[in-house]
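call fold(seq) -> tokens
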Amino acid sequence: MDSSKMQIDSPTAVEGNDSTIDEGLYSRQLYVLGHEAMKRMSQSDVLVVGLKGLGVEIAKNICLAGVKSITLFDPAPAAISDLSTQFFIRSEDVGKRRDEVSAPRLGELNNYTPVEVAPNNVLDDLSLLSKYKAVVVTDIPLSDQLRINNYCHDKKIAFVSASTHGLFGNIFCDFGSDFGVVDPTGESPVSGIVAGIDETGLVSALDESRHGLEDGDYVTFSEVEGMDSVNGAEFKVDVKGPYTFSIGEIPNYTPYSRGGLFTQVKKPKIINFKSLAAQLAQPEFVYSDYAKFDRPMQLHVGFQALHKFFECHKFWPRPMNREDAAEVLKYSVEIAESYGDSKPELDEKLIQELSFQATGSLAPMCAFFGGMAAQEVLKSVSCKFGPIVQYMYFDSLESLPTSVTRSEETCKPLGTRYDGQIAVFGKDYQDKIANVKQFLVGAGAIGCEMLKNWALIGLGTGPQGKLSVTDMDQIEKSNLNRQFLFRPADVGKLKSECAANAVQTINPDLRGKINTMRDRVGEDTEHVFNEDFWQDLDGVTNALDNVQARTYVDRRCVFFLKPLLESGTLGTKGNTQVVLPNVSESYSSSQDPPEQSFPMCTLRSFPNRIEHTIAWSRDLFESYFVQPAENVNLYLSQPNFLESTLKQSGNQKQILQTIKDFLVSQKPITFEECIIWARKQFEEQYNNNIQQLLYTFPKDSTTSSGTPFWSGPKRAPDPLHFNASNPEHMGFIKAAANLHAFNYGIKGTNIDDFTYQKILDNMIIPEFSPSSDVKIQASDNDPDPNAAQGSGFDDQAELNRLLDSLPPPNSMAGYRLVKVDFEKDDDSNYHMDFITAASNLRALNYGIPTADKHKTKGIAGKIIPAIATTTSLVTGLVCLELYKLIDGKNKIEDFKNGFINLALPFVAFSEPIASPKGKYQGKNGDVVLDKLWDRFYFDHDLTLQEFLNAMDEKGLEVTMLSSGVSLLYASFFPKKKRDERVGLSMSKLVEHVSKQPIPAHTKNLIFEVCVDDQSGEDVEVPFVCIKLK
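ret:
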């Protein structure tokens, strides 16, 4: 491998548990797998046999994940048809060994995972397999699979077999006997606060919060008072209800007093896998589609029949060849008879279709099974997540086109890169695929995989075809772990441009066919993504990572009646959604639950979880290094800051005091003064404030009902006393000092630990005396005792004093502070160092277990866990739905929304939900409307009166008309006002009321109306669209 192609840090060649993991590269994946699983993977060698489309997809995903090494074996010469799915083979590579061509290109993906070619006799001398932790095979005869599996099963080498034939595919796993799964689900252990434990062992969760446990789970307890014997002990759970569970009889029972936490204990699961030969005879299935419950056994027989055909003829059944299909069916019937009572009832058409498609190879199917199989390999070497036990079959026959006629003639190989797809769909449908105009929004993880699939299937490569892709983001190092079109040399470049260039290398037919853009799709870019742009599209595919952007694109698709393919991932979980104009609901029709937030009172004074202290430290970061700099700069730059901005803020005194501190009284000149400032902040936050809290609410205080104040979710804190030899204490000082210095442009790079120590030793910290005047809110349900303070209106003298102490802005012309823009992925900027230290110190105050920098970064940075396998699988499902859209299918039952969780593993599908319908009483009876997709459309800029008349003809009386925030017409307007407006054109009316000209690029105006129907009832109707140009 050419090391000059890789620029990331060199891997540390260390064996055992001391091996390090590059958190910069694997950041998002670590939040899925964890450090221990990643360490096990980094010590595992994997062999991949078969390097057609499916094999290279598996190898790509394993390589990105970061195993110790990958060895490839496929000595067969590359064929032109391989280019249908093999993205690392070029047309000039035809005739060369697949493994030798693929190895260097796979090797570029991850410098931590070397890729090599296996010796030619690796499948003849099976003892050579003993060096591998896992062997994955594709595209080899069943007899060879059996021989290899027998060896692997005996030697406890994990074995994974996968194959695809057109729109059919399967996967088989055998990880040996007594295989231990450390974490079967990947979910975080459930924990909660105990409200009570009675003499029968019935545990109640606090404040009727759901405990989230299941029968058979195990829990441990801590901090339980009175019933001390349960602390540290492990109990099996019997769920009694959503808020209660039983732990059975308690030995050495003593009455429960108060407090306590319960935490779920993750138990390893032992699985005894059977060999391939045993599973062929008595298969166990993981079902991929519950609507096809009887299909796995039929396909189990059919796939064996295909292999029998291959062994007889040394080639697969020919596309659409009925003679070959009849022979496959004959073998299927014979094999089915061997299953006795388990004999499946064969659907002849299903087996025939399997034979018709046997030589076909489709990129979306390779993406689906490539993601699935790669995750199974990672499970086998990491012992993380539940594996497939042991077979899974999947087909997407619904993706077959009905708009073209398939025949042996139209599906025969033509000597082109698309022959693998033509074998399934035929040449006529390939031409349809080539002439599609598709828009991809986002070129990140999903975007890269989507573009790869599009390039392989030839989307947009025809005379009328065109792809548009936009992404405003630049490539970062952490992207390289799953956005496989990018290389280290691309870091800092635009994603859309690099991704487009990469897929044009995969398929040169795309040259000149991709329109790359760098604009965010939103209201501020409607002059770029204008009506002409949207109208020219056949469809839109989202590859976005935030709800706001997804919602906007969804609304645009609804307005322009364009189909939308939506998808998303979260670690091992993924989903896909099809939005069909005039048929289904849209993405915006349903909403995800709101993001978790914490009560302010909990964050300020009563944290009980590490998530609380991390949220508090993130706010502290803003209040120290962002907001003061912004306020100072506003004061110095805005002439009307004191008159307008400050008065609107509602906390004038606090802002003025901050400006004075940062600009006058505490303004540092040297880095040493920044260290002093940091030490003072430590004392204030972790000692003084805690002393004050305990003064206001002593540890023995009680509530008005007589219960202890410090009970339930309230944990009594203890002040911290600064210790320079404590790394956590010094970590806070160093990070805070450096960030404070950054605000002022002061350099502190040459300060050593001795200097820090000397400065801190010379400081005299005054004794703190709590005050009875300080009021602290005890609960979010109570009024804030400080709410009236800080408004500024009742203490004008104090405000004037603060104002007088500030230097006039003109005396500091050009002077500005530098605010700190939070960046979680730069380990040298002290941002995460500060937040981690600040959070952990507060956790120590309250006796909460601390969190390392990695966990803190995930929570504070709101990092979305991600892994390449899920992304690959999800984009495969999306493209299977894309086939249907290209075919022109428009019935809701033709489409599927997908839901997957690779950790379990779980795959399920549902029909899209139909769009909501409504009706109103018109002049000729009830009129049915589609609430989402219908609209009242007018093809010219009519007057308001003409519009009112047109609506009246539909049986609707307009009572109110608006555009945006402008109320244009209402039945309650005075007659003079109505008369002034009814003669205006709709566009002039909008300009007249809004006092704003209509933007030049606007071709349609949108109006909302309130109407009464013929029954006199107020009815909900769609929006109004008026064409201007």
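Residues 63 and 1017 are 64 Å apart (CA to CA).
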